[in-house]
Structures are given as C-alpha cells and as structure tokens.
Amino acid sequence: MRRFAPRPPSVHRARHAAEAALCGWGVAPASLPLVMLVLSELATNAVRHGRVPGRYYEVRIAYDAEKLVGIEVSDPREGLPVVGEASPDAERGRGLAIVEAFAEAWGVRERIVGKTVWARVRI
Question: Does position 70 have pLDDT exceeding 80, yes or no?
C-alpha cells in the first residue's frame, strides 16, 4: 500500500510504483497496459473527486501469481461514485465506464472514513 497526495502528478507516481511492483512479481510487460489504464482511471477519480484537504489517497496492488491483478484506490471523501453517461466527445465522465469495460469485476466499499474503489483485471 502506498499513499499519495491528491494532486494530478501523483497519478503518474502511482502508476510507476504499481508497474515496479508488478514487474518485481514477474508480470510480463505486455500485460501491464490494461492494469495501468484501470489504475489511472481509479487514481484520477481519487484526485478529482475524492480530495479532502490535508488527506491522502491510498493505492494497493495485489497479484495472484497467475492471471489476476487486484487494484484498490481508497480516498477520504464520503459518498459513492457512479458510472456517468458521457458523450463520445466528452473530456470527463468516462473513468468508471472505462473501468467497467476493462476490469473483470469492480466495486466500491465504504470505510470508516471515505471509500475504496476496487477492480480485478485479468491479464
């Protein structure tokens, strides 16, 4: 688990940390883009919608050593995210739709403070 300040550059740092962990666990580099896409969307949502002044967001990555990568992004803001309807030319509002399209499963669980959005990606 790593914590990140809720600023846009942290999404890149979260991706880099996850990529390093997955490569260390022996995940083939060709399998990483899909995982990084889902992680980017979840981390971006935490930065844009989950920001609470003075609080961090957390990223957890797990690998089952076969074909499944778990991604969890927790932020301190109350309220559950929803999959938005975005037009094809929209610049925002497609993050969870992308997660839904590319993850085998995803969901949200409430925490004492905030929430965790999780996704499972088959590689």
Answer: yes
Taking only the tens place, the pLDDT of each residue in 85-115 is 665 655 666 789 999 999 999 999 999 999 9
The answer to whether the predicted template modeling score (pTM) of the entire model surpasses 0.85 is: yes
Longest Cα–Cα distance of the chain, Å, equals 39
Instruction: Please say if the pLDDT value at position 3 is more than 80.
Output: yes
Separation of alpha carbons 90 and 98, rounded Å: 13
End-to-end CA distance of the chain: 21
Cα separation values, 103 from 74, 98, 123, Å: 17, 8, 10
Question: Which ranges of 64-111 does DSSP label H, i.e. alpha helix?
Answer: 95-102
Q: Where are the alpha helices (DSSP H) in the chain?
A: 9-24, 32-49, 95-102
3-class secondary structure, 57: strand
8 Å CB contact between 74 and 116: yes
Distance in angstroms (rounded) separating the CA atoms of residues 50 and 10: 13
Find out whether 73 and 62 touch, Cβ atoms under 8 Å.
no
